[in-house]
Design brief:
- By secondary structure, the chain is of the alpha+beta class.
- The chain folds into two domains: 185 residues, D-amino Acid Aminotransferase, Chain A, domain 1; 87 residues, Beta Barrel (OB fold (Dihydrolipoamide Acetyltransferase, E2P)).
- Strand 10 and strand 11 form a beta hairpin.
- The chain is globular, with a radius of gyration of 22 Å.
């Protein structure tokens, strides 16, 4: 297991200034998504997904990785797709490296779980994703034979499969595929000490993993994410949605520009906010409505990372014309 200071390994170590040109040389592949597996295991997810860290959930044998601030990318049936199974065109230049990784591991066709990130940071990653063209790195979390993934029947523990994966990545001749080294954490206090170190070094957070657990295609406690959580009050500008499902998104005012919040509202809150939208945003309001939003800090351009609805600030109620 690696020391905490040696957290990233990338294939093709001779990375040079022509990296963007190398990425551009990769020919585009046919755009094709991946459907959710029907008639298989009950879990609808295409990949293992972490839950928020709680100290009482820490596994007996825990490994940790740096949490890369990027977008999840999955190799399924020779295609790179998102968690929702949609084409991930910005990461196509990583495909030859992933195919080489399959050969080095010698396990046949693989399902590979990674996080794609551009060198310039999260804003650049989102921009590349939207354009469908990038030159970043796919940082690989895990890999299992594709048939084990299809049936959700993998049995090998995380620790040996991750060690084998890292050895293969070290032998790669590709600068666009990297590996996230694991390091041992024994107690909750060690977790928070390491989290503080990681944050001081500019990384988003940690993912704590159960080293004894097989890969499972679902949200579960075998992967625990630890990220900074902050909150901010933002003025409500508009509400988008419909009468059937309620508020789909809230448009809020921030110093870095409008913020669209879609996460954090339950079904009842969505219906209530939509029903009261004219009161919350109406022209008779003299003092605006504020919404408290949780987030994970700001990006390089000052935008909120992963904003989530928390509540309407009733203690900052609006003044109306008749008040």
């Amino acid at each position: 297991m690696a020391e905490a200071g040696d957290m990233f390994t990338r294939g093709g170590r001779a990375v040079h200034s022509g990296i963007a040109q190398q990425a551009a040389l990769v020919s585009p592949r046919e755009r094709q998504g991946v459907e959710l597996i029907r008639g298989g295991p009950a879990a609808p997810e295409l990949a293992c997904r972490p839950v928020d860290y709680r100290s009482e959930w820490m596994p007996r044998f825990a490994c940790a990785e740096v949490k890369v601030d990027g977008i999840c990318g999955l190799l399924i049936d020779g295609r790179i797709v998102t968690l929702e199974g949609q084409p991930f065109d910005a990461a196509l230049h990583c495909l030859p490296g992933l195919e080489e990784l399959e050969k080095l591991l010698g396990l046949g066709p693989l399902f590979i779980h990674g996080e794609y990130a551009e060198e310039e940071g999260f804003d650049a990653t989102v921009s590349a994703f939207r354009k469908g063209q990038g030159c970043g790195t796919l940082w690989v979390h895990d890999a299992v034979p594709i048939e084990e993934w299809r049936t959700d029947s993998a049995e090998e523990a995380y620790y040996p499969r991750k060690a084998r994966l890292m050895r293969a990545i070290e032998d790669l001749d590709c600068p666009f595929v990297g590996g996230l080294a694991s390091f041992r954490l024994g107690t909750p206090s060690e977790v928070f000490d390491k989290f503080g170190e990681i944050r001081r070094r500019g990384y988003e957070g940690l993912v704590i993993k159960n080293a004894d657990a097989p890969y499972r295609r679902q949200r579960c406690r075998d992967w625990l994410r630890l990220k900074p959580v902050e909150s901010i009050d933002l003025r409500l500008l508009d509400v988008a949605g419909n009468d059937r499902t309620g508020a789909r998104s809230l448009i809020l005012e921030d110093v870095a520009g409008p913020v669209t919040v879609t996460q954090g509202m339950n079904a009842d809150q969505r219906l209530l906010i939509w029903r009261e939208r004219h009161i919350l945003t109406g022209t008779e309001i003299v003092k605006p409505i504020f919404v408290e939003v949780e987030h994970n800090g700001r990006t390089e351009q000052g935008k909120l990372r992963h904003p989530r609805y928390r509540r309407v600030r009733q203690d900052r109620a609006p003044l109306r014309q008749e008040d």
